[in-house]
Write a structure and sequence with these properties.
Layout (H helix, E strand, L loop, with lengths): L2 E5 L8 H27 L1 H30 L1 H6 L1 H4 L10 H18 L2 H6 L3 H21 L6 H5 L3 H7 L7 E2 L29 H21 L11 H28 L5 H24 L20 H21 L8 E2 L10 E5 L4
Parallel strand pairs: 2-3
Antiparallel strand pairs: 1-4
Helix pairs in contact: 1-2, 1-7, 2-12, 5-10, 10-11, 10-12, 12-13
Length: about 375
């Protein structure tokens, strides 16, 4: 039996110390994720608190400021890329149409799953754990077949559309702690394209539709979501419909608004319009999420981290929400586009530098 070995020109790579530091960080975050998953399964109340009321509220702000950090250490990404790191992936490349379809499915999955938080996930740790395990399973299966981050992290992941919307003007690009060389697995690469946004690629109707849905629909969807109360049990079809009704109404309203404005404005102002909708979405999220974390939310204990009602004056929460809104509009809309990508693209793998060595049979 013969063995094929591929040797790529190394070029400039992260130093061994830098790689070690990132591997430690990835392992640490993965272990934190595993601990939260354990709590969701065996200590559901604690797990729900850690996941939905601590980890998730941090994520949107991180996406805005330094999405590259998250892309380097996301536990699902680390799991998805294990087959590639261990040389077990078939390293297939997705066609443009396949990637567009995955992006659209990811957007739809986001809008289907998030309202179910009110129906089950916000109050059921085991159900949340099953959701996470299911996504990890899908991600690692895709990792066995497709090159690097193409199929899951930049394709099917329901969080990726939000990353592209919020991560359009990051603080700085950081080293890529996963991809050893750029294999051009998808174009444009969301990690390495400066000032990426959901409409950066409109190659197929699937790309266009997924971009249009996430840009236009997300702000209203978020507003509607925060006007729905958690259900302790879904007892009827109507109670199930209720968790979708207001998010869907808000989604349609801002989607239509975006559609109208995008037809009116000149193409050169499209990027600014996208930034306004991105800032509106993340600002709306924290406008409602911050008060809920501290007991000032619309619905009693929904989304509660620690109850400071009666301790903090209500004006302090108003000041916090106004401050975050001003910050996100400054950061995404007013602040100059700095031409930074999420991570620094590693050296391209040059096909001419690929040397295939066929080792002799050992008989």
């Amino acid at each position: 039996m013969s063995i094929a070995r591929v040797v790529l020109k190394s070029g400039d790579q992260l130093s061994s110390i830098s790689i070690l530091i990132w591997r430690i960080a990835q392992t640490a975050v993965w272990l934190v994720g595993a601990a939260i998953l354990f709590c969701l399964l065996f200590y559901p109340s604690l797990g729900v608190l850690l996941f939905w009321n601590i980890l998730i509220p941090i994520a949107p702000a991180l996406f805005v400021i330094a999405i590259g950090v998250w892309r380097n250490v996301c536990p699902l990404a680390t799991t998805n890329l294990l087959p590639r790191h261990f040389g077990l992936s078939k390293r297939k490349k997705l066609s443009v149409t396949q990637l567009g379809k995955l992006n659209l499915v990811g957007v739809i999955a986001l809008f289907v799953i998030v309202p179910l938080r009110h129906a089950v996930f916000n109050t059921n740790g085991v159900a949340t754990a099953i959701l996470i395990i299911s996504m990890a399973f899908i991600g690692i299966i895709l990792g066995f077949f497709y090159e690097w981050k193409s199929a899951w992290c930049s394709g099917l992941c329901p969080i990726h559309p939000v990353e592209k919307l919020y991560g359009g003007n990051v603080l700085a690009a950081i080293p890529n702690a996963h991809c050893e060389q750029c294999m051009n697995c998808i174009i444009p690469c969301p990690d390495s394209t400066p000032n990426i946004h959901p409409n950066s690629s409109t190659k197929t109707i699937y790309h266009k539709l997924s971009g249009w849905l996430i840009i236009g629909g997300l702000p209203g969807f978020i507003w509607g979501w925060f006007h729905v109360q958690d259900e302790t049990a879904i007892t009827s079809l109507q109670s199930f419909i209720n968790v979708y009704r207001l998010p869907l109404i808000g989604f349609i309203v801002t989607l239509l608004l975006f559609g109208i404005l995008s037809k009116i404005i000149q193409p050169k102002y499209e990027r600014g319009l996208i930034s306004i909708f991105a800032a509106s979405g993340v600002s709306c999220y924290y406008w409602y999420r911050l008060p809920a974390l501290f007991g000032f939310g619309n619905y009693a204990d929904d989304g509660l981290l620690v109850n400071l009602l009666g301790i903090l004056p209500e004006w302090s929460l108003t000041a916090m929400t106004i401050t975050t809104t001003l910050f996100f509009f400054y950061w995404l809309v007013i602040r100059k586009q700095n031409n930074k990508s999420w991570v620094i693209r590693p050296q391209f793998a040059n096909k001419q530098d690929v040397v295939e060595e066929r080792l002799p049979e050992v008989g």
